[in-house]
Amino acid sequence: MYQEKANSLNDRLAELEAALEATVQETEDLANIAAIITSIVNLESVLAAAMEISIRHVAGEVGAILMSEGEALTTKIAWGVENGFLDHLVFQDGLDVARYCLRSGEPLCENRCEDRFPANRPIRNFIACPIPGKDQAWGVVVILNKEAGRDFSDQDIRRLEMICRFTSVAIENARLLQESLAKKELEQELELARQVQMTFLPEKAVIPGLQIASTYVPARQVGGDYLDLIPVSNAGLYFLVGDVTSKGAPAALIMTAVYSIVRASVHSGSTMDPSAILLRLNDLLCRDIIKGREMFLTLFVGRLEIASGRLTYCNGGHPSPLFYSVGAGDVISLNGGGPLIGQFPEATYCSSELTFNPGDRIFCYTDGLTEAQDSHGRLFGLPRLTACFRDGVNQDPEALNHRMVQEIDRFRQGSGRDEIDDYTTLIIDYMEESASGHHYRYTYPSRLEVLETMYADLEVVFARHDIPAEAANPLRLAVSEAVTNAIIHAHRQEVAKRVILQLDVKQTAIVADIIDEGSGVDIEDIQAHDLSFEPLAESSRGLGLIRRLADAVEIRRMPQGGTGVKVTKYVDVSHSR
Amino acid sequence: MEIILEAYGNVYVLSLRGKLDLASAAGLKARVKSLLDDHKNLIHVCLREVDFINSSGLGAMVSLLKEIRLHRGRLTLSDLAPYVNEIFDITQLSHVFEVFPTVEEAMISYGAIPVA
To answer: Which of A182, A464, A563, B83 sees the fewest Cβ atoms within 10 Å?
Structure first.
């Protein structure tokens, strides 16, 4: 009897062990399934794997996976059944097995259902299970006929449910990946477009007699703002600032067309009047490019003859540029021209004229500037912009431009608006070109790489005025010493701090003035500086060299706190232009 | 600044091209340092293509001289353009450096034979 009990206990133990073994196996299987399915990143492969695993793990004969596509449910994978076969397995409420399961959102299983379906479809039993999704199910897995004539068990249902859950995760991953790849591709294309567009932007223009500063900030990778400077011999400098309504790629495409039309026009040989350029643009945009779509262009075109200072301009519906006249001491807006471009085929445009005197300045901008908003939704507006422009009449274009951009950024801070409009600025100063000589002004950020730029700027001036090497060499040295000193010592390479270089080329002398934004130096200490050269010192030869090579050196503390070093070298430039 | 390195026997000749200022001095110093690290301490600098030098460039040359001496080596210069020569004269560095008119004359002073 004990023996019997012992045997029975042994049997029970063996059963339990087998059950445990089966559970462990089951868990391992599921873990493997999860690992396999979720490692696949391609949607089709995910479905194929899910089908194969489902068939194997619930031991079905055939099956299919159907996916929701909007309202429709489409067979994506059919394993052993032809496409559309499942549509005939009407289960209830006129719905087939898959659709009924999808609607209920629950697994559906029935054994011994030979009588339920038409005789030509020998279906003994089936399981259907939805693949859960975020808002609605991704689709349904249907398995037909358990192998060897057996019934589907509750465990089969649980297994299929589990597989569907893993499949759901894998589908989600695959979709996300696909989206991010598509996005990446688009981003790469946009980046390429941005690079192409940036090549359209005028290079830092060095035009004798003018001082020019500009900013171009696209809201997205590519923008609809238009900025161009085109020096044309005999005609002068064409400068254009415009804006295509709408942002991003469509605007950028129109802008590109405008760029080509404008360039082709001004280089056509004969001198193009600004109004003629706008007329031509309007004609081509209306007729061939915009063709009644809801897009248009606003554009200001100016042509400045540098020798005479005569400006011819035409404004095609663009925010009026501001003009500062030194003589009048006042700021006016330059209106007049015609309507916006690309919507009215019959529009006419006419140019206006004014004459620049030395010291006069024009400021062109796009509405991205005036329409910048602060945290209360207030616009930066024209009055604020005009005030900013007026306040900066004594700053050079680069410095004023820098300040305006900073002011706009500060205004916009805390507005929480990521979506900004494109904005563009252009400032042109007409420089003194009189008996008192030629004036040049440059602004450099505080990094050592600008030394190269500075040498190049100096070369342009030296070449223009035929400055002989005896004068050019010491000046180059003095300027390089002072600029290096400003960058390294006064600014400690803080890039945002600016070094200003002013050159005055006069009849008998060239004066270079280098001004920094540092905290200033002790002038008396410098005056008392020992100018003898220490043979093995690794630094502090600069000032001594300047003093030795220049004809006059003046070091002064600037009202704003920085230091100015003014170096004079006498030279006879009367033979130069 | 461009730097071309050639070996004449155990003498290493650096031919510079461009402007010698604070921006370009770092590259030159790094080049010489790697030679010294390699126990190559006989160094000649040809300044034929240097059209400009300022106090930062002079400072870099002095620093090289000290560094090379520290490594028991020798630094020679040659081919100073008139303007560069003037700067060396003004700052009295002509007496601090061994300056030769040409690379060849400098090489003779080392007793170095050009490598084919």
So the answer is: A182
Kindly determine whether residue B54 and residue A545, on different chains, have CB atoms separated by under 8 Å: yes
CATH, range A27-177: 3.30.450.40
CB < 8 Å to A452, chain B: 23
Query: Among all residues of chain B, which has the CA nearest to that of A488?
Result: B22
- High-pLDDT (> 70) share of chain A, %: 91
User: Among the residues of A319-449, which ranges form H helices?
Assistant: 367-370, 381-391, 397-412
Tell me the C-alpha to C-alpha distance, in Å, between residue A560 and each of A349, A455, A500, A517: 46, 27, 13, 8
pLDDT digit string (tens) for A215-264?
887 766 666 788 888 888 776 899 999 988 766 677 777 887 888 888 88
Task: Specify the CATH superfamily of domain A437-570.
Answer: Histidine kinase-like ATPase, C-terminal domain (3.30.565.10)
pLDDT of residue A208: 74
Of A481, A488, A538, the CB nearest to B54: A481
Q: What is the ipTM of this complex?
A: 0.85
With CB atoms and an 8 Å threshold, state whether A545 touches B90: yes
Q: Are A281 and A236 in contact (CB under 8 A)?
A: no
Cβ–Cβ under 8 Å, residues A225 and A215: no
Delineate the domains of chain B, giving CATH numbers in brackets: 2-110 (3.30.750.24)
Q: Render pLDDT for A174-212 as a digit per residue (tens, 0 to 9).
A: 888 888 888 888 777 777 777 776 776 666 666 778 888
- Tell me: pLDDT of A453 over 70: yes
Task: Give the model confidence (pLDDT) of A269-291 as tens digits.
Answer: 778 899 999 999 999 888 877 77
Question: Using N-to-C axis directions, what is the helix angle for A154-200 and A43-58, rounded to 10°?
Answer: 170
Q: Which two tokens stand for residue A558?
A: 């600037």
User: CB–CB of A545 and B91 under 8 A?
Assistant: yes
Q: For chain A, what are the domain ranges?
A: 27-177, 201-434, 437-570
Cβ <8 Å between A545 and B23: no
Q: Which CATH code of 3.40.50.11240, 3.60.40.10, 3.40.50.2300, 3.30.390.10 fits the domain covering A201-434?
A: 3.60.40.10
